[in-house]
Design brief:
The complex is a heterodimer of chains A (129) and B (147). Chain A contains 5 helices and 5 strands. Chain A is of the alpha/beta class. In chain A, α2 (40-57) packs parallel to α3. Chain A is globular. The radius of gyration of chain B is 15 Å and the shape is globular. Classes of the chains: A alpha/beta (129), B alpha+beta (147).
Chain lengths: 129, 147
């Protein structure tokens, strides 16, 4: 039996309690709010959570929010590049949101500014509206 | 060069230890009074070296990763990350940015990050014997409040 979108969303939210990434689906945009440290170890789990939903809903835009990320090595760059490749399959795109200043060094080293759109948004403020 | 202080750490090459290893090195280096940014650079470089040992050195096996950390004069920290894994066939090629043998999800930026975030980087490797990455970073001298 097919679940309604609301039921699915609710189930997703329950599953996301202690996860390093929280997913929000709004119209054609899937937002992944990542928290904690992104390294080779945590990137595997983050990738699986994002891809499981993204492959199913095929959003036009995938927003990766780094506002709550306090450490990231090149595994984070790999995570972003991998998601860009996935989104290209259905001609979607990736937007990087709220990248902290202290992670700027690795972001510019990887040349991510030329690949993705970057923006700053207050997530809490947005969901309160 | 004589070390003013040193610590040695070894752990099995399982990925949960990546966060542990960089946190230990950072905690040890704190006595040199680095800035938050300098400490972040050190943690990132250590994370790259340890990840390389786990992902590449011990590709199909679990082995021991060794970290030798020494504090040298002039506010300098030296970190040596060693494995007894498979070794690198062509070190120069491995150090080229974007080169990776690990597939789509690896950016191929590990050595580029180590080179950029640290002051010195040396990679020694022998096929079948393992790899040693030696990095150094000098922290900027700062005015200390209590003399």
């Amino acid at each position: 039996m097919a679940k309604t979108e609301k039921q699915e969303e609710q189930a997703d939210q329950e599953n996301q309690a202690n996860k390093p990434v929280r997913l929000l689906l709004h119209e054609n945009t899937l937002t992944a709010v990542i928290s904690g440290e992104i390294d080779h170890h945590s990137a595997c789990e983050i990738r699986e959570i994002i891809d499981m939903t993204a492959m199913r809903v095929r959003p036009e835009e995938l927003v990766l929010d780094f506002g709550a990320v306090h450490f990231m090595d090149s595994s984070g760059v790999g995570l972003i590049l991998g998601r860009c490749k996935m989104m290209e399959i259905w001609h979607g795109h990736v937007t990087i949101q709220n990248m902290p200043q202290k992670l700027e060094r690795i972001v510019s080293l990887a040349g991510l500014h030329e690949l993705c759109e970057f923006r700053k948004v207050d997530v809490k403020h947005e969901s309160a509206e | 060069m004589k070390a003013l202080n040193e610590m040695h750490l070894n752990f099995p090459s399982i990925s949960t230890n990546e966060g542990f290893a960089r946190a230990v090195v950072a905690a040890f280096a704190v006595q040199l009074d680095p800035t938050v940014d300098e400490l972040c650079d050190l943690k990132t470089a250590v994370s790259e070296a340890v990840t390389n040992a786990i992902v590449h050195g011990y590709r199909d096996t679990i082995g021991t990763v060794y970290i030798d950390c020494r504090l040298l004069k002039d506010n300098t920290v030296q970190v040596k990350v060693r494995d007894h894994g498979c070794g690198i066939e062509d070190v120069e090629q491995a150090m080229e940015p974007l080169f990776t043998t690990a597939g789509d999800e690896r950016a191929g930026l590990g050595f580029a990050v180590m080179k950029n975030f640290m002051d010195k980087l040396k990679v020694q490797s022998k096929l079948g014997k393992g790899t040693t990455v030696t990095m150094e970073k000098s922290f900027s001298p700062r005015m200390r409040q209590n003399g």
